[in-house]
Amino acid sequence: MALQNAVFTPSVYESSGTVMIKGKEIPYTTVCQDNVLYDEQGQEAGSMFTYSYFRSDVSNVTSRPVMFLFNGGPGSGSIWLHAGIFGPLRMKFGNPEAVNTPHIAPYFIENNDLCLLDICDLVFIDPVGTGWGRLLNKEAYDRFYGVDADAESFKTLIHTWLNRHKRWLSPKYLFGESYGTVRAGILSDKLTGVGSEMNGVGINGIILLGNAMGNAKGYFAFDAEAALLALPSMAAANWYHNKLSGTLKEFVDACYAFCETDYVLALFQGTNLKESEYERIAEKVAYFSGLTKKEVLKQNLRPDMALSWKQLLEEKGLELGRLDGRFTLPFGSRTGVEGVALTQYTPAFMAAMCGPIKDALNITHDREYYAITRRDGIEWNFVSKEQPYECLAASMRRNPELRLMFATGYYDMACKIGEARYLASHGGYPKERVEIYEYPSGHMVYLGEESAEAFAEDVRAFIQ
Question: Which CATH superfamily is domain 17-221+343-463 in?
Answer without folding.
Answer: Alpha/Beta hydrolase fold, catalytic domain (3.40.50.1820)
